[in-house]
C-alpha cells in the first residue's frame, strides 16, 4: 500500500489529534472563565478519546497492523492518566457536569509569583473576576488593612488560580498536555509504521505558568470600584475597619 494512501486514511485521526491541541490552547485562553474552561475541557477529553478508535478503523485491514498495534493499544488503555480522563468523559456523557476543584489566592504580583496573597474562595462555577469583585467588596467593608490597593509602581493586583480534576492534585491543563504528548508518541509510531519519517509532537507553544495562573488587574479601576461601594447610601463599614493608605482616584498619573 502506498504511503500516501495510508496517510490519507489516517487523516481523521490526525485531525482529531490537532483538534485536541487546539482545545488545550482554549483551556489556557479561558483559564479564568469557569464555564468556557469546563466546556473546552469536555471537548478536549472527547477528542483524545476518539483518536485510537480512528487509528484502528483506518488501518484495521492492513496486513500486520492489528498485531503490531496491539501492545500500543493495551498500554494506552491501561495508562492511569488516559483512564482518568476517559472516566471523566464518561461521567459527563452519562451523568452531567464535572465537579472540578478550584482554588486560588488574591494578592499582588511583581511579575513572578505572588508577593502578598490571601487565600480566598474561588468557586468552581465562578470566574476569577467574580472572586476579585467579592474580595473588593470585603475590603470595602473591612478596610484595606494590608494595602492591597495602595499605590505601588512595582506591583499589580492579581488572582492566582488553579483547576484540578476530582482525585488529582495536578493542574488540569498540565494533565491535558501530558495526555496529548502520550498520544503523540503513539501517533508518531503509527506514522513511522506507515513508512514516513517519524514526526515530532511538542507543546513549546504553551503559555508560561505566570501567564496561565495569574490574572492581572488595574489597581486604579479596583480602587474606584471600592470607593463606589462605600459611596452607596446604605453602605456600612465595620467598626474597626481601616485602610493602610488613603484610597483616592486622583493619585496616579
Overview of the molecule:
This protein has about 250 residues and is of the alpha+beta class. Helices cover about 55% and strands about 10% of the residues. The protein has eight helices and four strands. The protein has a four-stranded antiparallel sheet with strand order 2-1-3-4. A hairpin with a 6-residue loop joins β1 (about 100-110) and β2 (about 115-120). α3 (about 65-80) runs antiparallel to α6. The longest helix is centred in the first third of the chain and has 27 residues, at about 5-30. The N and C termini lie far apart (about 70 Å).
Which structural traits does this protein have?
253 residues, 4-stranded antiparallel beta sheet
Topology:
Layout: H1 3-29, H2 34-59, H3 65-78, H4 80-94, E1 101-109, E2 116-119, H5 128-142, E3 156-164, H6 172-193, H7 209-213, E4 214-216, H8 219-230
Antiparallel strand pairs: 1-2, 1-3, 3-4
Helix pairs in contact: 1-2, 1-6, 2-4, 2-6, 3-6, 5-8
Task: Write a brief structural summary.
It is built from 8 helices and 4 strands, in the order ααααββαβααβα.
**What integer value in Å does the Rg equal?**
24 Å
Task: Give the spatial strand order of the biggest sheet.
Answer: 2-1-3-4
Fraction in helix: 40-55%
What is the tally of beta strands? 4
